[in-house]
Amino acid sequence: MMLTVQNLTAGYGTAQVLHGADLTLDQGRAVAVLGRNGVGKTTFVHALMGLVRPSSGSIRLAGRELSGLDTRRIARLGVRIVPQGRRVFRSLTVAETLEISRSPGEWTVERVYQIFPALAARRRHRGDQLSGGEQEMLAIGRALLGNPRLLLLDEPSEGLAPRLVEELGVVLAGLRATGISVVLVEQNLRLALEVADEVRCMVKGRFVYGAAAGEFAGDGAAIAAYLGVGS
Ligand SMILES: Nc1ncnc2c1ncn2[C@@H]1O[C@H](COP(=O)(O)OP(=O)(O)OP(=O)(O)O)[C@@H](O)[C@H]1O
């Protein structure tokens, strides 16, 4: 198992947000973490990255315990996050940003340009001159240059035009073939189902539903219950 999360609890001060979250993920698989606003999806991926310190429970990456380690250490063990809101360097160019994100491994700047040709075309543009979609590609490119075994994506489609969401879907779906494991927090159900093999739905800081993506897609009652749409 690439990722095994057991009985994870975490929160902010006295406010507990995760109440015993369990999740497993095989190598090269993608899981979509779905649920209504405020149920704890961001807190969950932040806990995996060490950005929020778990109060109890276990997070194992290929058997190695991550809970309690700091973010830098977790990153060195092969986890990268593409944060909600992208947070690209506004004053650095695309090329500069990718250059400083490089680390030895399979992913090179050229390979990032290959999967995101739009970035190659913008390589001399600064972060603050990019569209939302280009900023998202840059944020993903940076994360890939860290050669992650586990990639955490927090609402990558947020604020993107439908055409860009489609492009993103193709790239993210293609990443699975590279052997990377992906945890995708996403409000856009269509994108989530295109990218993910499996779906887990969170309610009040716990995963209460799990299914193959195809099964969830056909389960109108579950979609209505956990996302409050469709039915
Ligand atoms: N830094 C923080 N300090 C205090 N409370 C926080 C912080 N971040 C999130 N929370 C609270 O934790 C709860 C879960 O938030 P979280 O962002 O994990 O949910 P989410 O499922 O990702 O929601 P959304 O889809 O709206 O991003 C919410 O009640 C939120 O207000």
From TrEMBL:
Pfam families: ABC_tran. Residues 3-229 form the ABC transporter domain. Keywords: Amino-acid transport, ATP-binding, Nucleotide-binding, Transport. GO terms for molecular function: ATP binding; ATP hydrolysis activity; branched-chain amino acid transmembrane transporter activity. It comes from the Bacteria. The lineage of its organism: Bacteria, Bacillati, Actinomycetota, Actinomycetes, Streptosporangiales. GO terms for biological process: L-amino acid transport. This is Branched-chain amino acid transport system ATP-binding protein. Belongs to the ABC transporter superfamily.
